[in-house]
Amino acid sequence: GENFDLWKLKLKTYFISQKLWDIVQSGYIKPNNTITLSKEEQKKLEDCDQKDAQALFVLQQAAGETIARRIMDVDTAKKAWDILEEEFEGNEQVRSIKLHYLRREFETIKMKESEIIEEYYGRIKEIVNKMKLYGKEIKEKRVVEKILITLTEKYDSIVASIETSSDPSSLSVNKLIGLLGAHEARLNSCVDTNSVENAFQLKLKLQSKNREDGGKKNAGEYSRNKDSRNFSGNKKDKYLSCGICNKPGHAKKYFWHHGKPICHYCNKPGHMEKYCRNKNKHQANFVEEHNQEQRLSYAKQESCDNGDGSWYLDSGCSNHMAKDQSIFVDIDSSVKVKVRLGNGTMMES
């Protein structure tokens, strides 16, 4: 039903080619009494009956199964054709209304910016053909004028050339479409060339801009680094030295361990003596070898002439032993280590 106009056009063309269109469009008169007819009239009647049956068969085969049921009770091709026309095209009043809409569509149609000339002409031609099916034929001159006045601005130059060089009314539609198509192809080739050139120019501009931005960025980074160095220098100059750690760059009140106790063992701030990690580091080192004789090496040095203050030194340790405590200037009594002697016994220093 939606493409009835196209279906009708195809069938009409087929009927004309088979010399059946007169039977379908006008029908024929079949007399009630055929006995009185002459042989020539009977032959003509038989010929009309055959053509009518052939046309009706074509209509039944061309229509779908659902539509064919609507014409299954008719006995002539003209009746079947009239039924289909009235159902899908309407009566005379409906056709007049549809033709009115088609005229308005033809008058208001314009070319879109995204369309090519072939597509636009296809839309116009479709409207013209529908109007022709409803009984209104648009002349070729009117179609040419419609195309020329409804083109987009990019066709202004070719339209002016056509209007000045020849009479538009004498120009055929096919020739006009050919001229407009050639102009369109020329415009497209120019656009492609310009696009390549513009892309190349844009690339050069971007490269130049990137180089400029890179130079500015490097200069800005150098300036920032210089300023930061100046700021750091100024800041260090502001605070000469800390009263706790004796290091420049910050005041005593900004020192990390400001207000915390100072260790009396290592003289470092931030912890007390009993928590000092350096206090218990002194341990005696000894080497024990299995399946071998264990020995203690020592050195002897006289600390006085009478030999009463002899020293015994363990060469593998950093701690010193003496039998007389009074000879030491400073003793760390917190260090308690065990020493293995040469006879294998252990003693605590």
Automatic annotation (TrEMBL):
PROSITE patterns: ZF_CCHC
Domain of life of the source: Eukaryota
Domain CCHC-type: 263-278
Single annotated GO MF: nucleic acid binding
Keywords noted in UniProt: Metal-binding, Zinc, Zinc-finger
Keyword Magnesium: no
Annotated InterPro entries: PolX-like_BBD (IPR054722), Znf_CCHC (IPR001878), Znf_CCHC_sf (IPR036875)
Keyword Zinc: yes
Region (Disordered): 211-232
Name of protein: Retrovirus-related Pol polyprotein from transposon TNT 1-94
Organism: Cajanus cajan (Pigeon pea)
Lineage: Eukaryota, Viridiplantae, Streptophyta, Embryophyta, Tracheophyta
